[in-house]
Write a structure and sequence with these properties.
Length: about 200
């Protein structure tokens, strides 16, 4: 079976590989990812992930299995996507410092018009941060392409003092939940990891 990761995120590619999937192709969805829609965060990421999957399905045609995802950070009911610039990153990190927030990733698996969409929530706590520390972190460049302006898998780990839920969900793909949905589509990751061929 042809598997397509409908994402330009290098983290998602790495996570799919770590799940045991091989031989998948990457097609970056070209959609308007506005995160200012009046939806609760879990619905927002579910909706955007479904839009990404459908956009790539329309672009490719055929019967490939398509995986798409979207991640946002939620703080006090506000949704934080990627920072527009360094000042936006400083603003987000200042708001997150010393507090707990939620990370939501929605994902969609789509094949032959049949779609399954789910989302996961992970709570993340930040230690308190000085303005100088925030400035240093922003100058690493790491925040710019990431929801909430940090990467837990990078230097951002130095800011995080606790999490509850799936760590990989924060990185952009809830590995355990996605594995279960893929199994429903006949893609058994553990069999693949063991060297088998049950990829559809
Ligand atoms: C909070 C957090 C987010 N992120 C990343 C995951 C996502 O790649 C990104 C959120 O942006 P998304 O819009 O979800 O994804 P993307 O634009 O990178 O890729 P595509 O739309 O093509 O699928 O933030 C981290 O890598 N680490 C973190 O700790």
């Amino acid at each position: 079976m042809d598997i397509i990761l409908a994402s330009g995120s290098p983290r998602r590619r790495e996570l799919l590989e770590r799940m045991g999937l091989r031989d998948f192709r990457i097609v970056t969805p070209d959609i308007d990812e506005r995160s200012d829609r009046p939806l609760p965060p879990h619905r927002l990421v579910e909706t955007i992930s479904a839009e990404k999957a459908r956009a790539v399905a329309a672009q490719l045609g055929g019967d490939a299995l398509i995986i798409a995802a979207d991640t946002v950070v939620a703080l006090d009911g506000a949704v934080l996507g990627k920072p527009g610039d360094a000042a936006g990153a400083v603003e987000m990190l200042t708001a997150l410092a010393g507090r707990r927030h939620e990370v939501y990733t929605g994902f969609t698996v789509l094949r032959d018009g049949e779609a399954v969409t789910r989302s996961e929530r992970t709570e993340v706590s930040f230690r308190s941060l000085t303005a100088e520390e925030i400035g240093h972190y922003v100058s690493t460049g790491e925040p710019m392409d990431k929801a909430g302006a940090y990467g837990i898998q990078g230097f951002g780990a130095l800011l995080v003092d606790g999490i509850r839920g799936d760590y990989f969900n924060v990185m952009g793909l809830p590995v355990c939940a996605l594995g279960r949905v893929l199994a429903g589509f006949g893609v058994d990751c553990l069999t693949l990891a063991a060297g088998g061929t049950k990829q559809g």
